[in-house]
Amino acid sequence: MVKTIRIELTDDIQDEVNKISDESSADSKVYVLFFGTELPSTGQSWCPDCYQAYPHIRNAFDECASNATLIEAPVGTREQWKNNPSHPYKVNQRIALRKIPTLIRWTVPAGKNDRLVESECENDELLKFFLTRD
């Protein structure tokens, strides 16, 4: 079963995610999903790519990631994210977030192959491969 945890926009995201990762079981994989915060008026992300990708991501987790932790990390409002080079998730060296949605596999060292970005998060086959590879 997938355990989902939501953390709000923070400068200390790496510490928070590391703490959750440390508390997870040894064989559990930890993923972080970065997306545009939901609008109060609709309950949906202001980011159209995030809105499109979310059902694909949830379905992939439900089908493929039985022993995983999914940390949902909204990036804030459109104003907080767009054209803000000092956004805490953009300047964090490990995360170096540039586009949303982004799904990062946290349990491996940061690298080119440890994340899915934008339309990759809508690709069901790619999501399944990403969640099931060792």
Automatic annotation (TrEMBL):
Top-level taxon of the source organism: Eukaryota
Database matches in Gene3D superfamilies: Glutaredoxin
Example GO molecular function: protein-disulfide reductase [NAD(P)H] activity
One of the Pfam families matching this protein, by short name: TXD17-like_Trx
SUPFAM superfamilies reported for this sequence: Thioredoxin-like
GO cellular component, one term: cytosol
Sequence ranges assigned to domain Thioredoxin in this UniProt record: 16-132
Entry similarity comment: Belongs to the thioredoxin family.
Name by which UniProt lists this protein: 6814_t:CDS:1
Organism: Paraglomus brasilianum
